[in-house]
């Protein structure tokens, strides 16, 4: 199994339903356009048994770092950095829920961001967990920013160490 860039001619976006309208609509109406404009990249995991069906997707881009919302040690370490990688969206279709695909997609997204950071250098990955998935991310080592409960981060150093284990 591997993720591929969203291709509207190959992937049936209309059948995708993760239970969150905003995420479904984003995949249907915005993801392709945002990629064409180089604003973000959306990767989908197709079902090997029927490649048009999307098991899940995630969207990657960059985001500014609010240093003041980080723990003091990280503020010092990263005071000259301005940008973090962002998992802007990540969702699994309800038909495939609870089978480990959310974890699989998160690991895949983090691998891609780690690889990108080997080239352009950025110290954190941020995720916006507004849609009730906060505990999903904390389970994998993400920490909430001081000021925003639903915005979480993990350092590139932690990601690298967890893949080295
Ligand atoms: C959150 C989501 C991606 C999880 O996908 P999934 O394929 O069902 O998750 P997995 O089967 O890989 O679960 C992995 C682990 O996370 C846990 N988990 C799953 N969803 C969770 C949630 N919302 N909160 C806390 N833990 C969660 C599972 O219990 C499992 O734990 P275990 O290994 O101890 O049993 C999926 O529920 C979803 O798409 N939700 C709607 C969209 C959303 O909220 N996206 C995130 C914001 S962009």
Automatic annotation (TrEMBL):
CDD domains: NAT_SF (cd04301). One of its GO terms (molecular function) is acyltransferase activity, transferring groups other than amino-acyl groups. Residues 1-161 form the N-acetyltransferase domain. Keywords: Acyltransferase, Repressor, Toxin-antitoxin system, Transferase. It catalyses: glycyl-tRNA(Gly) + acetyl-CoA = N-acetylglycyl-tRNA(Gly) + CoA + H(+). Signal peptide: none annotated. InterPro entries: Acyl_CoA_acyltransferase (IPR016181), GNAT_dom (IPR000182). SUPFAM superfamilies: Acyl-CoA N-acyltransferases (Nat). PANTHER family: ACETYLTRANSFERASE (PTHR36449:SF1), ACETYLTRANSFERASE-RELATED (PTHR36449). This is GNAT family N-acetyltransferase.
């Amino acid at each position: 199994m591997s993720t591929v860039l969203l291709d509207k001619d190959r992937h049936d976006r209309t059948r995708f339903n993760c239970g969150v309208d905003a995420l479904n609509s984003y995949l249907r109406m915005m993801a392709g356009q945002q990629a064409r404009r180089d604003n973000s990249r959306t990767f989908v995991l197709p079902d090997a048994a029927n490649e048009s069906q999307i098991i899940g997707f995630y969207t990657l881009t960059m985001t500014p770092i609010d240093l003041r919302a980080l723990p003091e040690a990280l503020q010092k370490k990263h005071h000259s950095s301005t940008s973090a990688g962002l998992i802007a969206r990540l969702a699994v279709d309800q038909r495939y829920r609870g089978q480990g695909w959310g974890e699989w997609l998160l690991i895949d997204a983090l691998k891609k961001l780690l690889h990108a950071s080997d080239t352009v250098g950025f110290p954190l990955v941020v995720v916006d967990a507004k849609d009730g998935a906060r505990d999903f991310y904390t389970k994998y080592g993400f920490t909430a920013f001081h000021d925003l409960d639903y915005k979480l981060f993990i350092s590139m150093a932690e990601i690298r160490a967890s893949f080295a284990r």
